[in-house]
Design the sequence.
């Protein structure tokens, strides 16, 4: 602040503080530190300016159109030319390019924002000893040019920009503008108390041309809803990266052009009750058909896909993404409509993604042209949400976006909010975006460590996450099982559970069926194994209990429950066998074979997993078990469970297998298998003698598939 002196008089009235009192020419005003304003005390020069009560001055804009009605431009006047002068480019007394005063309602200086020659900023406040204090601490924050803002007509549009320079640029063309200190930078923040200054006033927000600026504009608009009379956000055309309204004006932009841009933008008025609809009108309204990225699984909106780490969520998501991008089948059997897919693999690098694609696609797999990846993405409140919308705008045929994982993009928690609010608000904008463009957005997330019978309770976080999501998928795996259960819940999906099989040939999860139909706990698996080996002969619970060394009454209850779940068939007389889901006929895996006739084709029609099993050897007839003997004929093992089938090779010798002593039927010993099963990779038929351990089960291909594959190779 520089008081006017004889050598540096007021550029408005030409007076200064040392002049004779009572002469009518004295001016005890001052020049603002940034040199942009002359605070003159003479009423006759004030025009339409509002007086600052404490300083008793009128702030005249020196360069451009001043609200007093005069363009002062002191350099121009002193030069005696008609050319418009530019404001001085010299540094201030303290070595800054500019010093911007933040004044309270009464014109008193609260603090300054100082622009350094390197274009960085510092903030300071006046101390009681006349020296500057370079920390604001608890100093009250206000809007820039607050006194002028308050004195402006209430119907006049207020422009909100990102920096003090932009405020001055707009003021130079006669517009009312303001900003918050720090703008959109990390040090800047739009405070809720700023809204009161803009109550019932039309507001135009002019963001800088970058992600930070756009995000800042969204925050201001959301904060002002319900307070400002109207809100519009105008994105200025042809701006360079990080360009602002000052750049736009220097490029030749005019107030008239700005007004035309404002007219084209939609207005966000304060909330009204215009969204109320009568029951009759609602029932008469026609809505477009519900959209699904995957029918019955992923509907339009936001879906949380949760599971324990390393369970295969990313593999599952990638498989679905490939299916949608190519118009194939999700989970191996659900037809999907082809469309554009964006997969944000934020916990992977491009090298790992490439490796996974190689494994899934194989040597002959076509690379979908409509599948795109990103391994880095901004957080949703830091431009990430806008970037997603930009991608959706560019891809009209977009079907689905995967975000792997949610934690990588959700806004950072300030620590001052309730967890529910933080979780809910993290998801809600994505839901609005998904419904706006009719797509599915899948958020891959983790489950908590605690176990629960309710899948919703397994999801990490508060109920704010599940409450704001349109759908929820939870992937779980029971102990000692290589199958996974997929629990499906949502507003537009039938609540159900599916069983998924891992296909190591295609490196993906395949749909096996409803979990209720395929609920195969270790106890149930043992029953199914036994019935498969003995089929088509039916067994009673008493026989099963004896062979499995179980309690008869418990076995009877177990088999009754399995029958109720549709896993096994009861002839009404208490005799059970397995159910063939494909043709509703009993399995023929136990048909008697012909000794030594290797290469005879098996009865492949009973297997739901393989279309063409090729030529295989014959099964050991109707025996309940198979045995293993050494070269001397001694019994060395008993087959109780098949754990894995990778293939049956052409030269595999199974002659060491025979029926239990006393149960053998002439002509029923197995011969050598013929050609390997179609669709199964090269390998060996692997079985477990006695009870397999946990590692065997985890390393094996899915046990259900193994049982069916063994049935194919052993049937005749």
Sequence:
């Amino acid at each position: 602040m520089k008081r006017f002196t004889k050598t540096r008089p007021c550029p408005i009235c030409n007076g200064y503080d040392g002049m004779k009192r009572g002469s009518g020419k004295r001016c005890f005003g001052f020049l603002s530190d940034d040199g942009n304003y002359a605070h003159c005390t003479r009423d006759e020069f004030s025009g339409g300016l509002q007086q600052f009560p404490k300083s008793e001055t009128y702030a005249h804009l020196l360069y451009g159109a001043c609200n007093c009605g005069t363009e002062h431009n002191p350099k121009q006047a002193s030069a005696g030319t008609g050319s418009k002068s530019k404001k001085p480019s010299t540094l201030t007394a303290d070595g800054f390019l500019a010093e911007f005063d933040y004044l309270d309602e009464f014109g008193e200086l609260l603090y300054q924002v100082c622009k350094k020659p390197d274009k960085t900023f510092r903030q300071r406040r006046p101390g009681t000893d006349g020296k500057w204090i370079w920390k604001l601490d608890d100093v009250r924050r206000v809007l820039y040019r607050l006194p002028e803002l308050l004195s402006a007509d209430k119907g006049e549009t207020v422009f909100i920009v990102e920096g003090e320079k932009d405020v001055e640029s707009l003021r130079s063309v006669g517009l009312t503008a303001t900003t918050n200190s720090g703008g959109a930078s990390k040090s800047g923040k739009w405070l809720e108390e700023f809204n009161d200054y803009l109550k019932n006033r039309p507001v135009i927000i002019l963001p800088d041309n970058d992600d930070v600026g756009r995000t800042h504009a969204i925050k201001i608009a959301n904060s002002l809803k319900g307070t400002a009379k109207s809100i519009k956000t105008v994105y200025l055309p042809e701006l360079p990266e990080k360009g602002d309204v000052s750049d736009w004006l220097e490029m030749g932009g005019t107030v008239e052009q700005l007004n035309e841009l404002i007219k084209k933008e939609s207005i966000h008025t304060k909330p009204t009750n215009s969204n109320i609809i009568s029951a009759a009108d609602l029932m008469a309204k026609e809505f477009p058909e519900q959209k699904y990225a995957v029918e019955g699984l992923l509907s339009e909106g936001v879906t949380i896909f949760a599971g324990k780490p390393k369970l295969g969520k990313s593999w599952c998501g990638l498989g679905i993404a490939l299916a949608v991008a190519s118009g194939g089948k999700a989970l191996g059997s659900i037809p999907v409509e082809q469309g554009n897919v964006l997969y944000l693999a934020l916990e992977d690098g491009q090298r790992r993604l490439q490796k996974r694609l190689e494994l899934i696609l194989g040597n002959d797999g076509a690379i979908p042209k409509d599948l795109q990846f990103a391994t880095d993405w901004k957080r949703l409140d830091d431009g990430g949400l806008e970037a997603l919308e930009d991608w959706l705008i560019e891809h009209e045929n977009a079907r689905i976006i995967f975000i792997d994982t949610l934690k990588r993009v959700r806004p950072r928690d300030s620590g001052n909010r309730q967890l529910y609010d933080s979780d809910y608000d993290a998801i809600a904008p994505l839901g609005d975006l998904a419904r706006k463009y009719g797509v599915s957005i899948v958020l891959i997330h983790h489950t908590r460590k605690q176990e629960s019978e309710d899948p919703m309770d397994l999801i990490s976080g508060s109920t704010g996450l599940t409450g704001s999501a349109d759908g929820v998928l939870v992937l779980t795996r029971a102990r000692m099982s290589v199958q996974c259960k997929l629990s499906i819940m949502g507003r537009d999906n039938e609540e159900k559970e599916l069983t998924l099989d891992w296909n190591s040939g295609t490196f993906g999860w395949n749909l096996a069926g409803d979990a209720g139909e395929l609920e195969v706990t270790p106890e149930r698996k043992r029953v199914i194994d036994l019935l498969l080996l003995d089929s088509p002969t039916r067994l009673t619970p008493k026989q099963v209990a004896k062979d499995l060394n179980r309690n008869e009454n418990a076995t009877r209850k177990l088999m009754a429950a399995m029958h109720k779940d549709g896993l096994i068939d009861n002839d009404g007389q208490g005799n059970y066998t397995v159910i063939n889901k494909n043709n509703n006929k009993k399995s023929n895996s136990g048909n008697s074979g012909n000794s030594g006739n290797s290469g005879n084709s098996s009865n492949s029609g009973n297997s739901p997993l393989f279309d063409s099993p090729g030529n295989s050897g014959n099964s050991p007839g109707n025996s309940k078990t198979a045995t293993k003997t050494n070269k001397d004929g001694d019994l060395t093992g008993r087959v109780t469970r098949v754990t894995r089938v990778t293939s049956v090779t052409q030269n595999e010798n199974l002659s060491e297998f025979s029926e239990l002593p006393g149960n053998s039927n002439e002509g029923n010993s197995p011969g050598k298998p013929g050609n390997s099963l179609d669709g199964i990779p090269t390998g060996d038929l692997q079985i477990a003698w006695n009870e397999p351990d946990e590692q065997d089960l985890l390393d094996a291909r899915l046990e259900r598939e193994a049982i069916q594959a063994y049935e194919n190779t052993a049937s005749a």
